[in-house]
Design brief:
Elements lengths: L1 H14 L16 E9 L1 H11 L10 E17 L5 E15 L4 E13 L4 H32 L1
Parallel strand pairs: 1-2
Antiparallel strand pairs: 2-3, 3-4
Length: 153
């Protein structure tokens, strides 16, 4: 009887804790976004633009013009006793220049990640490509959050 009560109490507490994902409502927000210019890492920029297309609604009156400048670096952060790199640090810095009719704003978003070197070069390249895609999604989510805050003011 006590076990059933504990299980029931745990279930009630966990289901009613009020947790909601941070970016859950970002998919519902639409903006009239126009990408004016892109510079830097083409792969990350391409993914950011692809992810932003989900939030574009050309029927909205307020046009938001965005310039994207992304830099991506991959540096060795640790080596073994033979001097071979065993782990890398990846860093993407994306600068957004956002222009609406009434204001201009600059946003800088930085994403860092450390990863161990894989033995297979092909697998390493594939993994790094997937990480770039994931980093692009994170950058897009942070940009959308920033646009929501800007539009609420």
């Amino acid at each position: 009887m006590i076990k059933k009560f504990i299980i029931l109490a745990t279930f009630i507490v966990l289901t009613n804790c009020g947790f909601t994902p941070m970016y859950k409502n970002n998919m519902d927000n639409k903006f009239n976004i126009e990408i004016v210019n892109t510079e830097g890492d083409k792969e990350i920029n391409k993914h950011i633009i692809t992810y932003l297309k989900r939030h574009i609604d050309k029927n909205l009156e307020k046009i938001i013009k965005i310039k994207i400048d992304t830099s991506y670096s991959r540096k060795g952060i640790s080596k073994d006793s033979e001097g071979k790199t065993t782990s890398f640090g990846l860093m993407a810095i994306t600068k957004f220049e956002i222009s609406t009719g009434e204001e201009n704003k600059k946003i800088i978003i930085t994403e860092k990640l450390n990863l161990n070197k894989l033995d297979d070069i092909f697998e390493q390249k594939r993994y790094e490509t997937k990480i770039k895609k994931d980093i692009s999604l994170l950058i897009k989510d942070k940009l959308i959050t920033e646009l929501i805050v800007t539009n609420d003011n």
